[in-house]
Amino acid sequence: MVKKENLEKIQGILESTTRKWWFLVLFILIGTVTPPIVRKGFDPSKTGEIISYILRNAFIKFCSPLYPVFKIIPIILILALILFGNRIGRILSLYGGITYLLFAFLQGIAITDKYGFGIVTGNFILMILVAIFWFWEAFVNKSNFTPQKLPVTRYWVVPLAFLAFWYPVNLNQ
């Protein structure tokens, strides 16, 4: 079993590191300059086209029966968070970790006739890192989900977040 002092030390290092300016730059660079990995060779000038092709043909397109589940569970979790506050935080964090792990493998990987096995490496790495952070949060349970009084003007993003959640980008159009 991990000692509480060690958890606090690791948490402190993680918080300190993720707040540095270079961490955000590194995160952005990983997502933007990491080339895709494909089985069949490709011209580097076609990187954007290959990434788009992999995303359009990713494994997730075979999971469409699960789409409603991934729309309903977050709504239930948000309602539970409103009703039960921090008591549901660990479950929310586990759900976040599982979801990002699934997205990493299902959205970022494809097997196609044109390129063979392909991975959108930057997206894959970033989603795995975010999943790890969610799992870490579920383990240490440090988030505070207690509702706070905020000015109404701070909620302007809620309708946009809802639209992005309910009507995501469709790469097939």
Describe this structure in words.
The protein is mostly helical and 173 residues long. It has one domain (34-166). Helix content is 60%, strand content 6%. The chain has seven helices and three strands; from the N terminus they run ααβαααββαα. The chain has a three-stranded antiparallel sheet. It starts with a helix and ends in a 7-residue tail after the last helix.
Fraction of residues in β-strands: 5-15%
Distance between the termini: 50 Å
Helix content: 55-70%
Number of strands: 3
Element-level helix/strand string: HHEHHHEEHH
Coarse structural class: mainly alpha
Question: Topology, please?
Answer:
Elements: H1 4-18, H2 21-33, E1 37-38, H3 47-56, H4 69-84, H5 89-107, E2 109-112, E3 116-119, H6 121-140, H7 157-166
Antiparallel strand pairs: 1-3, 2-3
Short structural summary:
The chain is about 60% helix and about 5% strand.
Descriptive keywords:
173 residues, mainly alpha, three-stranded antiparallel sheet, 7 helices, 3 strands
